[in-house]
Every structure is written in C-alpha cells, then in structure tokens.
Write a structure and sequence with these properties.
Blueprint (H helix, E strand, L loop, with lengths): L1 E4 L2 E4 H46 L5 H17 L1
Antiparallel strand pairs: 1-2
C-alpha cells in the first residue's frame, strides 16, 4: 500500500508494520508489568495471611491471651 503526495510516493506498508511492531512491544511489556505487579501483590497477601494464621494458631498462655486472640479474630475478619 502506498500513497502519492504531489510527486512523492510514500510506502505506507513499512510504516504500518513498524507501528504494529511497536504496538506489539507495548502490549507485551504491559502484560509483563501487570503480571509482575500481580505476583508482588500476591506475595504480600500470602505473607499477610501467613502472619494472621500464625497469630491465630499460637497457643494461648492464659485466659487473657485467649480473649486477645478472640478479639483479634473478630477485628481481622472486618479487615479481610
């Protein structure tokens, strides 16, 4: 495909292919960026849940610890 402008003939196929290649690169980089951010957020979330699990499974030393754990469970449920 080419376009004639005055006495010049411009080959649009090469320009179109160049922009298609650039577009494909942008799409690929955006997908990689989204995947990287999702992986980081998943790791953060899993770490947070592991901390919650460890806190809940910790055996209470007394009734005060048991009461604190119960309160923690009720508070963390709202946050989740």
């Amino acid at each position: 495909m080419s376009v004639t402008v005055s006495i010049f003939t411009i080959n649009c196929k090469d320009i179109r292919n160049l922009y298609c290649g650039k577009y494909d690169q942008i799409v690929e980089r955006e997908i990689k960026l989204i995947a990287q951010k999702a992986e980081e957020k998943t790791y953060e979330l899993m770490t947070t849940f592991d901390q919650i699990k460890d806190r809940i499974r910790e055996p209470p030393a007394g009734i005060d610890d048991l009461t604190e754990t119960k309160k923690y469970i009720s508070e963390i449920g709202i946050q989740i």
